[in-house]
């Protein structure tokens, strides 16, 4: 027993020394993610971490903190920018107020559909958005899918903009979304993701808007049973890294980190397509009342003042929006 113990102690000491020997180079990163276990983004970020460790033989490790335990999204974006966390899977919605170029994806109906969003993000507009984010301390390594967001509420089906009039609707923190709800005659209520379930349940808000997987994973469908397929926002997400951490990497490590993020994005997009379907089926089975919006043009027309205000404040971003809309 004594012998075993001392062998154990020696082994521990050897490990410790080896560890200390690598101190100059070993990097231990922290990663933020808002979603729960099993969600496509969660699985993909874990994969990203796994590939990183494998490809660097443990010189770089990434400890993922899921379910938003490191704080809400706007705070986490700030934490990443100042380097308190190194990695994050962020929705471009709450990045918009920080990096104006990234805000163009939050213009309602700017993308025709999800494939159009991917083509634009994988092309020149995506590069331009990345440059804007880099100027603000965030390097986008890869783009994740987040489907299309639609309205849901506890009161009634939404078929026309008039149905939104007077409704209190939770939005993510971004003036564009508040403007969007205002333009439909509703009362926007910017709020952290984690607070929405309780607010819907207690009637603090009547509704919110999100994609099928988040509508399902959060349980919002239990307390807001009308889902109306407006698909007014198609917002991509990034795997982001703090800009200083990125700059300090060797070229070889930059390549490893980028390709690990891209591999995780391939997996995320596959898992997303499956989950999108599965979540939709699950909530329908649970009794959600669903309606399609055969004609979205009334909603699109209602967004004209939102665009006008945006271009007034950001005339220089008009070419980027044009480039997105011209992407085939
Ligand atoms: C989900 C996004 C997540 C957002 C959330 C929200 O993946 O990043 O925080 O919506 O509405 O779809 O806050």
Descriptive report:
The longest helix is centred in the C-terminal third of the chain and has 35 residues, at 251-285. The strands form three sheets. The chain has a five-stranded mixed sheet, sandwiched between helices. A four-stranded mixed sheet has the order 8-5-9-11. A two-stranded parallel ribbon has the order 6-7. The chain is globular and about 60 Å long. Helix 2 links the parallel strand 1 and strand 2 (60-65). It contains 15 helices and eleven strands. With 328 residues, it is of the alpha/beta class. Helix 2 runs antiparallel to helix 12 (251-285). The protein folds into two domains: 28-146 and 235-277, D-Maltodextrin-Binding Protein, domain 2 (3-Layer(aba) Sandwich); 149-234 and 295-326, D-Maltodextrin-Binding Protein, domain 2. It is 49% helix and 18% strand. It has helices at 2-21, 40-55, 73-82, 92-95, 114-121, 124-135, 175-183, 196-202, 212-217, 220-223, 243-247, 251-285, 297-302, 304-313, 318-326; strands at 27-32, 60-65, 87-91, 138-144, 149-153, 168-171, 187-190, 207-210, 226-233, 237-242, 289-292. Mean pLDDT is 94; it is low at 1-23. Bound molecules: beta-D-glucopyranuronic acid.
Record the SSE blueprint.
Elements: H1 2-21, E1 27-32, H2 40-55, E2 60-65, H3 73-82, E3 87-91, H4 92-95, H5 114-121, H6 124-135, E4 138-144, E5 149-153, E6 168-171, H7 175-183, E7 187-190, H8 196-202, E8 207-210, H9 212-217, H10 220-223, E9 226-233, E10 237-242, H11 243-247, H12 251-285, E11 289-292, H13 297-302, H14 304-313, H15 318-326
Parallel strand pairs: 1-2, 1-3, 6-7, 9-11
Antiparallel strand pairs: 3-10, 4-10, 5-8, 5-9
